[in-house]
Recover the amino acids of this structure.
């Protein structure tokens, strides 16, 4: 993992409306203990990450967007590998920030990821705006 | 022509404020004439069991709207009769009116409706009051019966369904959904609601363009709003649309349509173990709050569920990202706006039961959300 490594983030279908992603996709839930799960882009591509997430872990995902390690470090968010659940697993660490700071960083990451566009989308027709960027 | 004051229905509800009756409601009043006349015929045959015909009882009988008074709208309805046998015919029509009043009273008081009207005539209530909305009622008084009876949406349903063999009733209804099927030959289409039900409806020529456009764009998420006469089963479940009066294409961010989708989320919606389902009654509160307080000229928000069972509204205005994390139980929203260039942000807690909060929110969105 280096600063240019892409960190793939799965987007739950409910977190996308009319092609726009909610900032919640980049904000850990209270049960995540301030750690946002991502896939290490040096170890797995976007499509395979989606296949692993939906078919092996059997979770729901509309598709994959990404931020780089550098984009996280710029926002004082630590990134590290966490291979315990599976080899390609990594986390973006939001520990130590207030709720408002977490919200600010989530919005920034979401914006960066949206500008990069979908790296994998399950059904392009279900998300017209994403089709423009893919 | 013989004329006598007969009924004074008082229409109660916001729609009837200002001493006015919407034209669309006049057909509900017209149905009252048919009901009264049929009950009078029944009354005559009850009193004359040896007769099979009512001997012109209803000939030349008309109920006419002769005026509208203030005080929510009060319709003055007079009985017009041809001169032949007028007094006797008036007696039967007034008796019929009395029975209709008692049947409505029984529906309100939860006593037996069929003590006053036979099941065979209750179907006429399917036409009378069909346009009533939840907050509306028709109060009926007569010159010799000043104690009003009140017909509401609920009591009307009881009257129609008091006939044991009635399986369905009709009501004005509004639904939102996608159009996955349309048959131009049969002139029908189907609406797919957010609950996943398919409702069949007639394809009227005046609506064909909008319906077919939504059908073509079905996979792109196109949805429509339909208003018309719905056919419901005894449990109140919509089964079909008998007619469609109004069709409109919905904005992809239509708030009621999106909230309908979020309302049916199940516990564990977020990856099976997470994701508290929003409580349906609370979502209904939010829908009403937006309808009452969110100005129509403002950009519609994107709406998403939260893992905690709330709703998050979001806007992107230029370089400003805004979120309103809505706690549906506390009816409060945590507002956060961020200028992505300057990184200036604003935090505020809003009481969403307070109109001032909505005014502040609207000002923020109009101004591009750059000021605290």
């Amino acid at each position: 993992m280096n600063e240019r490594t892409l960190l793939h983030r799965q987007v739950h279908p409910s977190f996308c409306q009319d092609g726009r992603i909610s900032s919640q996709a980049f904000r850990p839930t209270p049960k995540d203990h301030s750690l946002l799960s991502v896939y290490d882009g040096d170890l797995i591509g976007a499509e395979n990450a989606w296949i692993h997430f939906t078919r092996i872990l059997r979770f729901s995902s509309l598709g994959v967007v990404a931020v780089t390690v550098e984009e996280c470090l710029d926002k004082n968010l630590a990134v590290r590998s966490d291979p315990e659940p599976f080899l390609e697993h990594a986390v973006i660490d939001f520990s130590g920030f207030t709720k408002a700071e977490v919200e600010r960083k989530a919005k920034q990451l979401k914006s960066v990821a949206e500008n990069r566009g979908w790296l994998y989308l399950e059904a392009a027709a279900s998300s017209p705006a994403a089709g423009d960027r893919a | 022509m013989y004329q006598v004051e007969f009924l004074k229905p008082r229409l109660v509800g916001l729609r009837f404020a200002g001493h006015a009756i919407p034209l669309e409601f006049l057909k509900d009043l017209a149905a009252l004439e048919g009901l009264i006349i049929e009950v009078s015929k029944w009354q005559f045959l009850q009193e004359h069991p040896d007769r099979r015909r009512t001997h012109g009882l209803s000939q030349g009988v008309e109920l006419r709207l002769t005026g509208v008074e203030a005080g929510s709208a009060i319709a003055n309805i007079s009985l017009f009769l041809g001169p032949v046998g007028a007094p006797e015919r008036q007696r039967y029509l007034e008796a019929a009116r009395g029975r209709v009043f008692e049947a409505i009273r029984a529906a309100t008081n939860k006593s037996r409706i069929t003590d006053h009207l036979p099941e065979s005539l209750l179907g006429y209530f399917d036409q009378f009051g069909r346009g009533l909305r939840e907050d509306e009622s028709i109060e009926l008084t007569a010159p010799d019966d000043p104690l009003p009876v009140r017909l509401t949406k609920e009591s009307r349903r009881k009257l129609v369904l008091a006939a044991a063999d009635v399986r369905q009733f009709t009501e004005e209804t509004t639904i939102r959904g996608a159009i996955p099927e349309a048959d131009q030959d049969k002139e029908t289409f189907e609406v797919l609601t957010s609950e996943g039900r398919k409702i069949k409806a007639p394809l009227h020529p005046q609506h064909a363009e909008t319906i077919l456009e939504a059908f073509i764009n079905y996979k792109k998420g196109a949805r429509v709003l339909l208003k018309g006469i719905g056919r419901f089963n005894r449990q109140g479940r919509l089964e079909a649309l008998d007619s469609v009066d109004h069709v409109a294409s919905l904005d992809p961010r239509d708030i009621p349509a999106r909230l309908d989708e979020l309302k049916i989320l199940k516990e564990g919606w977020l990856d099976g173990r997470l994701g508290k389902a929003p409580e349906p009654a609370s979502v209904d509160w939010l829908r009403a709050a937006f309808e009452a307080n969110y100005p129509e000229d403002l950009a519609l928000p994107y709406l998403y569920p939260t893992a905690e069972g709330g709703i998050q509204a979001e806007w992107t205005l230029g370089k400003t990202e805004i979120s309103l994390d809505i706690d549906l139980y506390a009816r409060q929203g945590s507002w956060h706006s961020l200028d992505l260039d300057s990184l200036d942000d604003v935090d505020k807690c809003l009481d969403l039961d307070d109109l001032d909060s909505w005014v502040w929110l609207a000002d923020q969105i109009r101004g591009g959300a750059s000021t605290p």
